[in-house]
Structure formats: structure tokens, C-alpha cells
Write a structure and sequence with these properties.
Length: about 450
């Protein structure tokens, strides 16, 4: 957007340098809005939808958003003080304590001691804000963060436009497996010009739907340790666990944070997770930030108190606090996982059927012009497109075939493809989706 009306009005000149620079680039928001109006099959928005009968006893054929019924039942019983009063800056004690136990519950099979080395989580209004807060705390404008080239577009808006820092990209895949060499090289290159490195990992990955297995997770940890040793600089590694648990094969069904939490004093691991996808509370907007502070860092109690002081200062000066009524509900729900885990697993299974149906359809009707990245988790698959502009393809798909997808074109990083949200489709819609994409490519070649 050129902002010509703002400039003509004179208002543009009243903006700060940041105000002049910030904007919402064309992408998910724009394509999703078009798909709502024009598409018969909408594969743009990162939510999970379907018939209730896919994951619960129900005779309804009406497609609705997947959710946990425990939340729906809980809010009818709330008292006024649980709804209307203020919440502390970093969250009410019950949600912080119970979320810490929830992390312990999720990671206990791999790391039984995890609860003893993590901080009380900090409540923030959504994972997006959590990423912003961590970037604001650890990145200066002269720094670069290390991320894969296939990443959630909002990372760029946060890091480049809001923080004013840069991004050192590495290619996510090498020969259909995680690119350890690229990660290591990016860390070492970045460390040449700054006093620490900042790595952001997102599994299940948006937009590719990739999650590592146990061996791959251990290799990632080894890569980080080697990079730190060779660069001579400490490292902050943040895990964006928005889609934690939504894994449809025998890969990691828990956060890689469990592996990263004890890699030594030169590697500080931070976990960002939340309720949007993990607990299917899409509009709840509650995220959590949790640090791993093993004994080799020093006195955990004192470190935790001082870290908390820093984050209270930042959060209170930006968003004040997170909504209390949401925190009360989440504190109650996660205190008794047995009340929702079965339903959640049924939802994960239902989405997994959609992912597997898409895999099978892509194999059955494969095209040399459409090359899917490895996907086994999350809500998305990424289809690399040869010889045809992804944006032109998405526009043609919408106009002729009434199919909505998100195009991703990043010429400098050799990315040209479509993000497909299988979680929001029915299994029956997937053959039409794949056929439509193949036909649209053929139309434009």
C-alpha cells in the first residue's frame, strides 16, 4: 500500500518514523478475505473445522469450528470476581502454576525433571505478543535473528518492522530432511557481527507442516552446541509451540524445548506456547513464556525474580495484562487434563485423517510442477510450484476453480509455492483441491 490518501491529507507527516514504516503487507489477511467472498473451498485460514461427529457423539451435519466442550461448559459457572476484576501483569497465580504443571505433564515422558528447572510462565495475550516481547527483550536493531526461509510471515513484521532488527535465513530442508548444516552456518555467520545469536524454531512448522522425529531433534541440539562452540558466542533459542501435539505420525508429539532445556550455560532455551491451537480456543488470546533455568546458570530463585522484573516492566508498559476471565478458564481446564485429553486426541485424529488424505491424493495425482515439502503435523502443507508464479496461480485458482489458498513468493530466497490449510477442509474436498491446483498450473503453463 502506498498510503497516498494519508500523504495527501498531511496526516502521514505527523507519524513517527516507525509509524511511517509499519504496514500490513499483502498476504494471509488479503487472500483470506478474498477466499471468504469468492471460494467454495477455503484453505486459507489456520483453524480446524468440520462436522462435530468427526470427534464427538453428535448427529449434527453442520460444519463448525473444532473446540473443547469443557470450555463451553465451564464459563456458565463463573462468579463475577472471576470475570470482571484485574489480573496481575504476568498472569493470575493459578494459571501460571497450572500451566507450569501442564508443561511438566506434556514433557514428563522425555524429561521427568522439566518442572524443576523451568520458571513460572508469563501470561501474555497470545503467542504473537510472546514472540514480540522476547524479540524486544533480546534483539537490538543491529542484530539478526536466525530463522528458516519458510516461516510464518508475521515473524518478519515483528522482527524487521517492530523491532528494527534483521533476519538471517537458512533453507529449512536439505534432501527432504531438516537442514542442520544450514542452521549451523547461519548461526556462525550471524555471530561474526553480534555478541550473541537468537534462533527461533517453530515445530510443527508454519507453513510446511513439518515436525522432526526424536533423532532429528537430537541432531538439531547437537548442531546448536557445535555452532555455539565454533562461534564462541552464547545463544538464545526460542521455540514457538503454537501447534504442539498436532502430530500425525511417530515424530515428536511434544515440544523440542524438552531437548533444548539442558544444553549448557551458553544456550538459553525459551518456550512460547498458548491456547489458540493447543487448546482450540481460537479467540481466547492467551500465550505463555517459559524459561529453562538449570542449576548451571546459578541461583534459580534469584534469576527468576530478576527476569520477572524485566518482563513486568515491558509487559506493563505495552499491553498492561492479559484478560482475566480467559486466564481463569484456562487455569481450571489445564488443572484436570483428563477432562479434555480424550476429546483433544479425537480432534487431533480427525485432523490427521485430513493430512493423510492430502498426502495420498498428492501421491495419486502427482504433478511434476507441484512438489510438496515433507509434512506430518500442524494444520498446513506447503506445495512448491515450478514455472508458474504462486500469486498468479492463487488468483487463477480462486477465479476459475473457487479454491482459496495462500501464495508465498520470496524470490530472494527461491520460494514460490502455496500454503494449503488441510485442517479446515473436509476429507471429501481434498480431491477437488488437488485436481484444481493441478489443472490451474496446466492452464497457466
Amino acid at each position: 500500500m502506498e498510503f497516498n490518501a494519508l500523504k495527501k491529507s498531511g496526516i502521514f507527516e505527523l507519524l513517527s518514523d516507525f509509524g511511517k514504516e509499519i504496514s500490513q503487507p499483502p498476504g494471509i489477511v488479503e487472500w483470506s478475505a478474498r477466499a471468504k467472498k469468492e471460494a467454495e473451498i477455503d484453505s486459507t485460514v489456520g483453524v480446524a473445522t468440520g462436522k462435530p461427529s468427526e470427534y464427538m457423539d453428535s448427529s449434527s451435519d453442520k460444519v463448525e469450528i473444532f473446540h473443547l466442550s469443557a470450555f463451553k461448559e465451564l464459563y456458565n459457572s463463573f462468579k463475577p470476581e472471576e470475570i470482571f476484576s484485574y489480573a496481575p501483569v504476568l498472569g493470575i497465580p493459578s494459571v501460571r502454576n497450572n500451566w507450569k504443571k501442564w508443561i511438566g505433564f506434556k514433557l514428563k515422558d522425555h524429561n521427568p525433571a522439566i518442572e524443576s528447572i523451568i520458571t513460572l510462565p508469563y501470561a501474555i495475550p497470545g503467542i504473537t505478543m510472546g514472540i514480540y516481547v522476547l524479540c524486544r527483550m533480546f534483539l537490538t536493531p543491529t542484530d539478526k535473528a536466525v530463522l528458516p526461509e519458510k516461516r510464518w510471515g508475521n515473524y518478519d513484521a515483528i522482527i524487521k518492522k517492530n523491532i528494527g532488527a534483521g533476519i538471517q535465513s537458512f533453507t529449512l530442508f536439505r534432501e527432504n530432511r531438516f537442514n542442520y548444516e544450514g542452521l549451523k552456518s547461519a548461526i556462525i555467520e550471524t555471530a561474526k557481527n553480534q555478541d550473541k545469536t537468537f534462533v527461533l524454531l517453530n515445530f510443527p512448522n508454519n507453513p510446511t507442516g513439518y515436525s522432526p522425529g526424536k533423532e532429528a531433534a537430537e541432531e538439531i541440539c547437537s548442531t546448536l552446541k557445535e555452532a555455539v562452540k565454533e562461534s564462541g558466542k552464547p545463544l538464545i533459542v526460542v521455540t514457538d509451540d503454537a501447534y504442539e501435539g498436532f502430530v500425525y505420525d511417530d515424530s515428536l508429539k511434544y515440544s523440542i524445548f524438552s531437548h533444548l532445556a539442558g544444553l549448557g550455560k551458553d544456550i538459553l532455551a525459551v518456550k512460547v506456547d498458548g491456547i489458540t491451537k493447543e487448546l482450540l480456543f481460537w479467540g481466547g488470546r492467551l500465550g505463555m513464556i517459559t524459561f529453562a533455568i538449570p542449576p548451571y546458570f546459578g541461583d534459580k530463585g534469584k534469576i527468576e525474580a530478576e527476569l520477572e522484573n524485566k518482563f513486568v516492566g515491558l509487559v506493563r508498559a505495552t499491553i498492561s495484562n492479559s484478560t482475566k476471565v480467559i486466564q481463569e478458564g484456562v487455569a481450571s481446564i489445564v488443572s484436570e487434563p483428563d477432562k479434555f485429553l480424550q476429546e483433544r486426541e479425537s480432534i487431533i485424529s480427525a485432523i490427521g485423517k485430513k493430512a493423510n488424505a492430502l498426502k495420498e491424493e498428492l501421491k495419486k495425482n502427482s504433478s511434476p510442477d507441484i512438489i510438496p515439502d515433507p509434512f506430518n503435523s500442524g494444520f498446513f502443507a506447503f506445495l512448491n510450484v515450478k514455472d508458474v508464479s504462486a500469486e498468479k496461480l492463487a488468483d487463477h485458482l480462486l477465479k476459475k476453480y473457487k479454491i482459496g489458498v495462500i501464495p508465498v513468493e520470496k524470490k530472494k530466497e527461491n520460494i514460490n509455492g502455496l500454503r494449503v490449510t488441510f485442517s479446515s477442509l473436509s476429507v471429501e474436498e481434498i480431491p477437488r483441491l488437488v485436481a484444481g491446483i493441478n489443472n490451474a498450473v496446466a492452464d497457466l503453463k
